[in-house]
């Protein structure tokens, strides 16, 4: 994986996934455009999502405190609920006479994360204008993606494929129409529906130029763009769910994390979160970071797949060298050591302390160690800085303001099954949520 980008590349893999999984129609002309524009399409993503300052600024603009204040809105009327509550099977209840809400925790946290992240890429109007976007996204991710990636054809007469393709087509159309409006903005033309695009990130403004320069048709733009929407959300939001679930359910951990994050959270007299110091949370909260790393270790399934364009020598520990021929696909499952008891003792137990170390100047720091959740080399994740900050900031905000416990009084974490980058729970986790300290 450490060989030069000229002999080892992820592009053929990306192209295959774009056509087989994300539903981009394969043709010689699409293939040519893909290879010609990939670098220019990815470059604005790296500028925003890999840069510390830019990622922090985007999350500050997202106004996480405002969203997290309404994590649950204590309303049984769907018209008054927040968007992320819609799929969470919300039930208004009370604990010892105090208002409480029962909810499906995975759906709630996953959609909260998506509602915070997506506008940072495509603007708020894109989310508001497409009311089925989140349900379509998770239907595509849960149903079609795992089948398509193992080669089940799109014509297969089975419900998950049919439902997944219907959801995927709506996502394609939403993205196609979005880019039509971005093209209108770029050309100083009136924008459809008079939509407000003032808050979109620089990414679509740059990608539209590449789409136009390489003659991507409007339909193809919507299809290929699904890969970016998916990359931004499909792993980040499930990790947020698992992080919160592990911290709330591990005895004695929540008070320690709260103690660490408290200086960087501002709560008003009513216990409402009003501000979040994201830069300091990133810098000064090793235990919270270690909780995130331990969550990656338990649930991430990073896999780096590459194509060899020329022969690559491979040395083994016995000092014999073999040569992998060109036109070979290789796959490195980076998460393989994560569950190995010779690498991590009690690998199935959530122990964040295993990622804590004392630095030379005596400070506690969280270190990745052997963990490789983002893949390796040039094809490594292009959104890792933003993803980790989003998980850290939204996670800290929720923990700072809300108490979460299991319905029935005893945490029973569901089995994890392979997902599409992050493991999924076999069932959702039903929780009861109250304001902190109640
Ligand atoms: C916890 C959240 C995330 C995880 C675990 C994750 C993980 C990964 C992994 C394992 C890869 C493949 C790396 C390889 O082949 O070696 C990847 C690629 C990628 N990720 Fe992420 N990712 C996350 C969030 C994001 C976000 C927020 C974005 C922003 C848009 C993003 C954009 C991308 C892109 C564009 C690629 C393709 C890179 C390339 O092939 O050049 N990811 N990610």
UniProtKB/TrEMBL annotation:
Membrane-crossing segments per the record: none
Q: Which Pfam families match?
A: p450
Coarse class of the primary localization is endoplasmic reticulum
A GO term, aspect molecular function: iron ion binding
Give the protein name, as stated in the record: Cytochrome P450
Q: Which cofactor does it need?
A: heme
Top-rank lineage group of the source organism: Eukaryota
């Amino acid at each position: 994986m450490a060989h030069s980008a000229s002999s080892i590349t992820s592009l053929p893999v990306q192209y295959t996934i774009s056509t087989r999984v994300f539903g981009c129609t394969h043709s010689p002309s699409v293939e040519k455009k893909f290879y010609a524009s990939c670098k220019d399409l990815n470059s604005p993503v790296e500028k925003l999502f890999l840069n510390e300052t830019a990622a922090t600024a985007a999350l500050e603009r997202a106004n996480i405190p405002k969203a997290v204040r309404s994590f649950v809105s204590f309303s049984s009327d769907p018209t008054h609920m927040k968007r992320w509550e819609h799929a969470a099977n919300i039930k208004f209840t009370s604990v010892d006479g105090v208002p409480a809400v029962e909810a499906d925790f995975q759906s709630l946290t996953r959609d909260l994360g998506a509602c915070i992240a997506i506008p940072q890429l495509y603007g708020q109007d894109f989310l508001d204008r497409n009311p089925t976007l989140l349900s379509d996204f998770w239907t595509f991710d849960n149903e079609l993606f795992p089948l398509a990636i193992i080669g089940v054809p799109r014509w297969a007469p089975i419900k998950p494929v049919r439902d997944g393709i219907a959801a995927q087509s709506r996502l394609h159309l939403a993205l196609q129409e979005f880019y039509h409006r971005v093209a209108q903005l770029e050309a100083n033309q009136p924008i459809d529906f008079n939509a407000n695009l003032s808050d979109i990130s620089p990414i679509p403004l740059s990608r539209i130029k590449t789409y136009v320069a390489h003659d991507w048709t409007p339909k193809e733009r919507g299809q290929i763009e699904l890969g970016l929407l998916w990359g931004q959300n499909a792993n980040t939001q499930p990790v947020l769910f698992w992080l919160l679930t592990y911290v709330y359910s591990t005895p004695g951990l929540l008070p320690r994390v709260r103690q660490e994050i408290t200086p960087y959270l501002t709560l008003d007299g009513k216990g409402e979160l009003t501000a979040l110091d994201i830069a300091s949370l990133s810098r000064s909260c090793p235990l919270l970071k270690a909780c995130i790393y331990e969550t990656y270790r338990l649930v991430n399934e990073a896999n780096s797949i590459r194509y060899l364009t020329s022969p690559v020598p491979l040395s083994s520990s016995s000092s014999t060298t073999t040569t992998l021929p060109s036109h070979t696909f290789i796959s490195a499952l980076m998460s393989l050591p994560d569950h190995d008891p010779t690498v991590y003792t009690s690998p199935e137990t959530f122990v964040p302390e295993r990622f804590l170390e004392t630095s030379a100047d005596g400070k506690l720091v969280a270190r990745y160690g052997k963990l490789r959740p983002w893949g390796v080399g040039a094809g490594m994740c292009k959104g890792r800085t933003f993803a980790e900050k989003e998980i850290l900031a939204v996670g800290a905000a929720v923990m700072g303001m809300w108490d979460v416990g299991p319905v029935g009084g005893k945490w029973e974490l569901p089995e994890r099954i392979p997902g599409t980058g992050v493991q999924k729970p076999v069932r959702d986790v039903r929780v009861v949520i109250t304001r902190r300290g109640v």
